[in-house]
């Protein structure tokens, strides 16, 4: 049997893929009929596909390739570690140097007294850990009734049964019996879509105060924690009004509940600080990390835990852990990734160079007839597509129809930009340079122009009433 390689014709690879590979978040039959795009290699911010196209990756993979593709140092760190100690567990009173060193580094980078790391293989696993951590914390403190976790509609916290329940994605809850008990969702601070006649500031306050109302409705003695992404990523890069987080922090301080910041996207430089909590001035008790922790070169995540919670958890046996908690190869690669982020001052590059440059160009897209608002913090941005800016109208067509057309026009222009409903989102590698930002934005504009023409031709420019 011949080996399957990059040199096979695209159609053959697609046929094999369709025959045996089940894709995440995909209608399999539909994909099998048209064939998946095959990516063969990548360098910096550039992907190459099996047809030889050079595609600008405006999504950093799935929000994760912070240092960009093709850094040989990470390959070498993995090879070195595999030769020395490819695997050992951290159960049963054992440890190893990669996990020790990575936990030490994360504790140094994390704000406040977030000094303790429980490792997982992914963001989903880390959020499952968080569910058990916060409930166990309160049980050990003699308050087992504090088991309810509050989250937000349209939040994304992962795809396992636990983390998918924490998330607020209705299509996910519709499959497989989610959410698990004692998880409740308040509304998100999406002013563009839901703010009506309110000012963004008033709306931000009102949405934050839903947290207080939920705490009072359930009773403070029932609430374990509130979990939120500092800036919602997969929900459409929803940048909250400036009033939102200060009010959330006030409420978390006023009641005896834990705050979990899901930093899986915002962490490791994405917002121009090491963590989104620093950019937005939040003081969480626990942070979820993954994605940018290893720049996606290895699957690894974790929960970064404050002194108080860690000391209570340490007072008993925590019956929880993963075979790959603190995996030595993943830890060694993550450590090398953090070294590069620090020594090359990539977070500083985001803050002082890339983000200000992109913000100006991104905001300028609002002169396009299809673009309502453009939001951006650091290197995560979104634009809302609309048939009528003045009224912030939605399209009459089913939600996502227009977004999907635009995404396909982006691909046709060799740009990866994702759609969430009828919002387009970007999250490029943090190492992106100004000349590459120029290419990103000009391709986005070309895709928007082609989308506009397609909508006119198909009579899709009609607003919903
Ligand atoms: C991607 C993501 C997760 C889940 O991480 P996985 O590694 O895919 O399990 C959790 N939270 C946020 C905010 C994410 O963006």
Describe the protein:
This protein is of the alpha/beta class and 465 residues long. It folds into two domains: 38-70 and 345-457, Aspartate Aminotransferase, domain 1; 73-343, Type I PLP-dependent aspartate aminotransferase-like (Major domain) (Aspartate Aminotransferase, domain 2), CATH 3.40.640. The protein is built from 17 helices and 15 strands. It has helices at residues 10-20, 28-34, 60-63, 72-84, 97-109, 123-140, 161-166, 170-173, 191-194, 200-218, 244-254, 276-279, 307-313, 328-343, 346-364, 401-412, 434-457, and strands at 39-43, 46-49, 54-57, 114-120, 148-152, 183-186, 223-228, 258-262, 286-289, 301-306, 371-377, 380-385, 415-416, 418-420, 423-426. The strands form three sheets. The protein has a seven-stranded mixed β-sheet, sandwiched between helices. The protein has a four-stranded mixed β-sheet with strand order 1-2-3-13. Bound molecules: pyridoxal-5'-phosphate. Residues 63, 122-124, 127, 156-158, 229, 233-234, 262, 264-265, 290-291, 301 line the site of pyridoxal-5'-phosphate.
Distance between the termini: 59 Å
Strand order of the largest sheet: 4-10-9-8-7-5-6
Low-confidence parts, pLDDT < 50 over ≥5 residues? none
Main β-sheet description: 7 strands, mixed
Number of helices: 17
Helical content, roughly? 40-55%
Task: Please indicate the percent range of residues in DSSP E strands (runs of 2 or more).
Answer: 15-25%
Q: Tell me, what is the CATH class of the largest domain?
A: Alpha Beta
Give the mean pLDDT: 97
Short précis:
By secondary structure, the chain is an alpha/beta fold.
């Amino acid at each position: 049997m011949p080996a399957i390689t990059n040199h096979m014709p695209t159609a053959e690879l697609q046929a094999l893929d369709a025959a045996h590979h089940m894709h995440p978040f995909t209608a399999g039959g539909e994909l099998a009929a048209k064939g998946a795009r095959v990516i063969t290699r990548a360098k910096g911010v550039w992907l190459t596909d099996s047809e030889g196209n050079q595609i600008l990756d405006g999504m950093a993979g799935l929000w994760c390739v912070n240092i960009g593709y093709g850094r040989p140092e990470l390959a070498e760190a993995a090879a070195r570690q595999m030769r020395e100690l490819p695997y050992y567990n951290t159960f049963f009173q054992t440890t190893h140097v990669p996990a020790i060193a990575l936990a030490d580094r994360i504790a140094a980078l994390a704000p406040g007294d977030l000094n303790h790391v429980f490792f997982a293989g992914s963001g989903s696993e880390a959020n499952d850990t968080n569910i058990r951590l916060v409930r166990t914390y309160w049980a050990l403190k003699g308050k087992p009734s504090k088991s309810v976790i509050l989250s937000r509609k349209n939040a994304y916290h992962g795809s396992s049964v636990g983390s998918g329940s924490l998330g607020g994605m209705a299509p996910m809850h519709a499959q497989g019996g989610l959410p698990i008990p004692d998880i409740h969702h308040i509304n998100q601070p999406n002013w563009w879509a839901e703010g009506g006649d309110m000012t963004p500031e008033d709306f931000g306050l009102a949405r934050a105060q839903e947290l207080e109302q939920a705490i009072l409705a359930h009773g403070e003695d029932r609430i374990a924690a509130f979990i939120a992404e500092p800036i919602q990523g997969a929900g459409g890069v929803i940048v909250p009004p400036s009033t939102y987080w200060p009010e959330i922090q006030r409420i978390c301080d006023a009641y005896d509940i834990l705050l979990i910041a899901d930093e899986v996207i915002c962490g490791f430089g994405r917002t121009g600080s090491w963590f989104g909590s620093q950019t937005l001035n939040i003081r969480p008790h626990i942070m979820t990390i993954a994605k940018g922790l290893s720049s996606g070169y290895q699957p690894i995540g974790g929960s970064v835990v404050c002194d108080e919670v860690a000391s209570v958890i340490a007072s008993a046996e925590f019956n929880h852990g993963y075979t790959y908690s603190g995996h030595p190869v993943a830890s060694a690669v993550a450590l090398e990734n953090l070294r590069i982020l620090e020594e090359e001052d990539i977070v500083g590059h985001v803050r002082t160079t890339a983000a200000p440059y992109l913000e100006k160009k991104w905001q300028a897209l609002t002169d396009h007839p299809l673009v309502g608002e453009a939001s951006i913090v650091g290197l995560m941005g979104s634009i809302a597509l609309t048939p009528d800016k003045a009224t912030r109208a939605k399209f009459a067509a089913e939600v996502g129809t227009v977004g999907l057309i635009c995404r396909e026009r982006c691909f046709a222009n060799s740009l990866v930009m994702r759609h969430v409903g009828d919002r387009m989102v970007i999250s490029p590698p943090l190492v992106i340079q100004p000349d590459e930002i120029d290419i990103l934005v000009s391709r986005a504009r070309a895709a928007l122009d082609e989308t506009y023409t397609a909508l006119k031709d198909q009579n899709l420019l009609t607003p919903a009433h």
